[in-house]
Amino acid sequence: MSAKRKLFCFWGCMDALALVVYVIHSLRHGRVPFVTDVQAFFLAGDDRFFGIAPGLLFLLDATLLLSLFVSAWLFLNGSRYALHFALGQELLRFIAFRSSVTLLPLFIGVTGLTNQWVNLPLFLLGEAVKIGSLIRVSKKTR
């Protein structure tokens, strides 16, 4: 198995794991994944001034969650579009503060390290590793 294939498999599994963690988290809190989030957003109220920013953030976060399906599929199938899709997805990840390395938030949750001085550097490190590894493997395969 080539280095590119191994890397694509790893990032595809991370995106699939992120979806599984999201679904389990929703079910543990008595929510229906995606459906309850959309309902809660639309039932939250109709504040025109303050509703724009949260609405935009909700839309971007929902887009990221749905794009994880596509990203995982592209990576696990070794698609040539996976790299470009993942790099485009990075902006959404930074806005939603959702790590590409799903194991990092799980580790933080288990250890109880809920401190911004721990979370932010780990998030940035995880994103740097993903972007760097994808760029490096793309240069090697050219």
What does this structure look like?
This protein has 6 helices and no strands. The protein has 142 residues and is an all-alpha fold. The two termini are 17 Å apart. The mean pLDDT is 88.
- Give start-end ranges of low-pLDDT stretches: none
Number of extended strands:
0
Oligomerization category of the chains in this entry: single chain
Average the pLDDT over all residues and give the rounded result.
Answer: 88
Rg of Cα set: 16 Å
Helical fraction equals over 70%
The 3D shape can be described as: globular
> In DSSP terms, counting alpha (H) and pi (I) runs of 4 or more, how many helices?
6
For the termini, the CA-CA separation is: 17 Å
The sequence of SSEs as H and E is HHHHHH
Broad structural category: mainly alpha
Largest sheet: none
Proportion of residues in β-strands = under 5%
What attributes does this structure have?
142 residues; mainly alpha; 6 helices
Quick rundown:
This protein is mostly helical and 142 residues long. The chain contains 6 helices and no strands.
Protein topology:
Blueprint: H1 3-28, H2 35-43, H3 52-76, H4 82-96, H5 103-111, H6 116-140
